[in-house]
Design brief:
mainly alpha; 148 residues; binds heme C; Four Helix Bundle (Hemerythrin (Met), subunit A)
Length: 148
């Protein structure tokens, strides 16, 4: 009886460990997925700004919605268990300077929200994208390590 219980317990503990390791890679995958979607939207935005595709307000709003989706979830996508994992380019700076990292996320989110309000035409969209683009690159510079 005891043996059977221990066995069940063992399975449960093992199951729980496997699940938490798994869920952390999930978090890494999730944040990378959101970032990839932002990058894809950023390319569409750049094409509109360069005049390669015509400006379209509905599309511009969709792009900003993708950024918003990314920005609004970032604060919970860097738990301790996601410091290391497969294919991650996150820098330890995220956990060494948590206040600064939070400030960057907040600024990104604030800039995206402001862009959602102010974007009405190509000129306002361009200004918004420039501000957001700076948020992307400055955060990457300080909180991402280049894969080599
Ligand atoms: C607050 C910080 C921050 C902001 C702002 C930010 N990123 Fe990132 N980004 C990261 C971090 C950290 C990683 C590394 C994630 C990982 O590999 O675990 C990353 C990774 C990426 C990746 C690589 C994803 C992969 O599959 O490895 C792309 C592409 C990317 N970001 C695009 C963007 C774009 C475009 C923007 C702006 C619209 C942006 N990011 C804004 C922090 C940020």
């Amino acid at each position: 009886m005891i043996r059977k219980l221990l066995l069940i317990f063992g399975v449960l503990v093992f199951g729980a460990t496997a699940a938490s390791a798994q869920s952390c890679q999930d978090v890494i995958n999730k944040r990378q997925d959101l970032m990839k979607k932002s990058a894809a939207s950023g390319k569409i935005a750049a094409a509109m700004i360069r005049g390669q595709t015509p400006f379209d307000l509905a599309k511009a709003k969709q792009i900003l919605a993708v950024f918003y989706n990314d920005a609004s979830q970032l604060s919970v996508l860097f738990p301790d268990c996601s410091k290391t994992g497969e294919h991650t380019t996150v820098s330890p700076a995220v956990w060494e300077k948590p206040a600064e990292f939070k400030t960057r996320i907040d600024k990104y989110l604030a800039d995206v929200k402001a862009a959602q309000k102010s974007t009405k035409d190509l000129a306002t969209f361009k200004a918004s994208i420039q501000a957001i683009g700076k948020d992307c690159s400055s955060c990457h510079q300080d909180f991402r390590v280049k894969r080599s």
